[in-house]
Amino acid sequence: MTTLIVMDRNGDTRYQFDAADARELLEAEARFRELTGAGFTAASRNSTGEARLTRTFDPTADEILFFPRLVGG
Fold first, then answer.
1. How many domains in the chain?
2. Which of 5, 40, 68, 72 keeps 20 to 30 A from 14, CA to CA?
3. Residue 72 forms part of a structural domain
4. What is the dihedral of CA 49, 12, 6, 28, to 10 degrees?
5. Whether 8 contacts 68, CB under 8 Å
6. What range defines the domain where residue 14 resides?
7. If you write DSSP's letter for every residue of 7-52 in order, what string do you get?
8. Are 57 and 31 in contact (CB under 8 A)?
């Protein structure tokens, strides 16, 4: 199972999906596109904890984290 973790001012929301399930995979990819289109930064994290910036949906990642755009003052 892969987990999408969306960070925001309220904490985090987690969405899990099974990459072997075509319907869940399509929903997860749509959520990825929606969030990155809204300005969130995506980073994928593998089983060793290593994170890297990602601009494309990777269903093989263990976790994909979404961080909101920072606004300076």
1. 1
2. 72
3. no
4. 90
5. yes
6. 2-67
7. EETTEEEEEEE-TT-HHHHHHHHHHHHHHHHTT-EEEEE-TT--EE
8. no
